[in-house]
C-alpha cells in the first residue's frame, strides 16, 4: 500500500467514526474540511472504500433521508449508499491512531494525524508533535547548509525562494513548540476543526487549513458521479 493510500484509509476511517456518510460527503470532507488531500476523483475514493468493505471495517446501506427515498422512485436513479464503521473498523482506526513511527512525521501524514488529535491520547500527541519537530529541525539544518554553500551562485529570485522555504519551516517549528508547551501544561486546544482541534496553515502562519508544508494545488481529474 502506498503512503497516500494509507493516509486515505486512515482519514476515511476517522471521518466515519464521527458519523456515517455517503461517498459525496466523504469526498467533500476529505478535500475541504480536513484540507489534507489535494483534489482527487471518486475513482480514488471508491477503491479505498471497496478495500475497507472487503476487510470488514465498513458496512454499506441505502440512505434513509427523504431525498434518498425519493431517489429510489425515480427512473434511472438509486438511493445513495451510506458507509458505516464496524466494530472491527473502530479497532483498526484505534490501532492506526496509536502509531507514532517516522511515517507520522511526514508532511501529509502529519496533517491527517493532526486532524484527529481530538481523538488521540495526550502521550501519543506528544510523541507525534516532538517527532515532527525533530524532523523539521533536521530539514532546516540541511536547508541552511545548502544555502550557505550555494548563496553566491544564486540569483536574487532563487535566493528569495530559498529564504521563503526556510521561513515556512521555521514558522512551523515555532507553532509546534507552542503546541508541545500546551500539551505539557495539560491544556487542550479549543477550535472548530475536525476532531475538535485548532488548525493552522503552516505555509502562511494563519489559522484555517491543516499544515501542508510545500503543498501545491492538485488537479486530479473528476471521476464517476457520487454514490
Automatic annotation (TrEMBL):
It comes from the Bacteria. Residues 126-167 form a coiled coil. Gene3D superfamilies: Winged helix-like DNA-binding domain superfamily/Winged helix DNA-binding domain. Keywords: Coiled coil. InterPro entries: Metal_resp_DNA-bind_regulator (IPR052509), Tscrpt_reg_PadR_N (IPR005149), WH-like_DNA-bd_sf (IPR036388), WH_DNA-bd_sf (IPR036390). Residues 12-95 form the Transcription regulator PadR N-terminal domain. Residues 184-227 are annotated as: Disordered. PANTHER family: CONSERVED PROTEIN, PADR-FAMILY TRANSCRIPTIONAL REGULATOR. This is PadR family transcriptional regulator. It comes from Streptomyces galbus. The lineage of its organism: Bacteria, Bacillati, Actinomycetota, Actinomycetes, Kitasatosporales.
Amino acid at each position: 500500500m502506498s503512503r497516500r493510500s494509507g493516509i486515505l484509509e486512515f482519514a476515511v476511517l476517522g471521518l466515519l467514526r464521527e458519523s456515517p456518510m455517503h461517498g459525496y460527503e466523504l469526498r467533500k470532507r476529505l478535500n475541504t474540511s480536513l484540507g489534507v488531500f489535494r483534489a482527487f476523483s471518486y475513482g480514488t475514493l471508491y477503491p479505498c472504500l471497496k478495500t475497507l468493505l472487503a476487510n470488514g471495517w465498513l458496512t454499506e446501506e441505502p440512505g434513509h433521508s427523504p431525498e434518498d427515498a425519493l431517489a429510489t422512485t425515480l427512473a434511472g436513479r438509486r438511493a445513495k449508499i451510506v458507509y458505516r464503521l464496524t466494530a472491527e473498523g473502530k479497532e483498526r482506526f484505534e490501532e492506526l491512531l496509536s502509531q507514532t513511527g517516522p511515517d507520522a512525521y511526514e508532511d501529509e501524514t502529519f496533517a491527517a494525524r493532526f486532524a484527529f488529535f481530538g481523538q488521540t491520547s495526550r502521550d501519543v500527541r506528544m510523541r507525534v508533535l516532538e517527532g515532527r519537530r525533530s524532523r523539521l529541525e533536521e530539514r532546516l539544518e540541511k536547508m541552511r547548509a545548502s544555502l550557505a554553500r550555494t548563496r553566491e551562485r544564486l540569483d536574487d529570485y532563487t535566493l528569495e525562494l530559498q529564504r521563503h522555504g526556510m521561513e515556512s519551516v521555521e514558522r512551523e517549528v515555532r507553532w509546534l513548540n507552542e503546541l508541545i508547551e500546551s500539551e505539557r501544561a495539560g491544556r487542550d486546544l479549543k477550535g472548530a476543526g475536525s476532531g475538535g482541534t485548532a488548525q493552522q496553515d503552516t505555509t502562511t502562519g494563519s489559522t484555517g487549513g491543516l499544515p501542508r508544508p510545500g503543498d501545491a494545488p492538485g488537479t486530479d481529474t473528476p471521476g464517476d458521479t457520487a454514490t
